[in-house]
Amino acid sequence: MLNDWAKRRLSELEAAAPVKRRTGKDAFVQVPLGWFEAATAATQSPQAFVSVWLLHLAWKAKSQTFPVPNDQLGRCGVSRYAKYRPLAKLERAGLITVDRRDRKTLIVTLVGLQTATDM
């Protein structure tokens, strides 16, 4: 049984604790890449796969900046040309920046994305 001081202190701590909730635009979902790969193949939308793949690469690299090699997407059925189109669209939308170097792997930086550690 709690005494009066303990009850008062507990209510103070509960009132001061920040509420951590993800709502709206900050909500996220975990997507099995194999399932998403099959879904994008079924809907013939490899560009959607590239968007999710970028998030996966950022998570894997533990950084907002990471390389995007052609061979990894190629194994998922996405050609390098199918990769370039969504990258250009995402760059025009201000969601990524792309460092293009002659005959080298593209380096992508996600822009304006809050990570789980930022929240």
Overall number of domains? 1
CATH fold group: Arc Repressor Mutant, subunit A
In CATH's first tier, which class applies? Mainly Alpha
Question: What is the average per-residue confidence, as pLDDT, rounded to a whole number?
Answer: 83
Q: Please tell me the CATH architecture by its name.
A: Orthogonal Bundle
Report helical residue fraction.
40-55%
What distinguishing features does this structure have?
119 residues, mainly alpha, Arc Repressor Mutant, subunit A, 3-stranded antiparallel β-sheet
Explain what this protein looks like in three dimensions.
Strand 2 (about 95-100) and strand 3 form a beta hairpin. Strands 1-3-2 form a 3-stranded antiparallel sheet. It contains 5 helices and 3 strands. Helix 2 packs antiparallel against helix 3 and helix 3 packs across helix 5. The protein has a single domain, classed as Arc Repressor Mutant, subunit A (Orthogonal Bundle). It is mainly α and about 120 residues long. The chain is elongated, with a radius of gyration of 21 Å. It has helices at about 5-15, 35-40, 45-60, 70-75, 80-90, and strands at about 65-70, 95-100, 105-110. The model has no long low-confidence stretch (mean pLDDT about 85).
